[in-house]
Amino acid sequence: MKKIILYIAIPVLMILNSYELYGMHMKDIFFHESETVGNEVLKIRGDGLLKWLFFKVYRVALYLPLDVPSENALDDVPKKMVFHYLVNMTTEQFAQAGENFLVKNASEYELSQIKTELDAIHDMYRDVKKGERYSLTYLPGKGTELALNGEVLGLIEGYDFASIYFRIWLGDNPVNDEMKHNLLNDAGREFSSN
Question: Which whole number is the average pLDDT over 4-18?
């Protein structure tokens, strides 16, 4: 009897897991279909779930202009990422996780060129509790803005920083490949926040 239950339960769990990963909304988590950045209206491109071992860490949405192809998401174009946290996290965890994936996506020289900016954004981060939201917004000609629950914590000027920092999620070696594909909507999903 136990074996039968396992044969039924495992496929069901796999289906539920893929259902979440492919952008269906988790209960009580909502992302707007568009975000205004400066004078630009950005549309949601995709969303994804980051899991670490057995923990769901955060749900994230990526916003881009409609006329920007997904393969150009790291270019000098407006973009916004909104992170909805499903666990508590500390400032130290943000800094450590960011550095771990930056070294996989940038050369030592590139990282040396943005060291001051990296230190600055690490100083901006605050501890978050489950249910809180960070947003990371890049606006050409202005820079990268970090906000917590809608409150702006600071701005890192210039495109050089943004071109490297967003690689954590959208680079060649992102924090999670499946999540990157979902954010960029490589499968061509119809996305609705309803």
Answer: 35
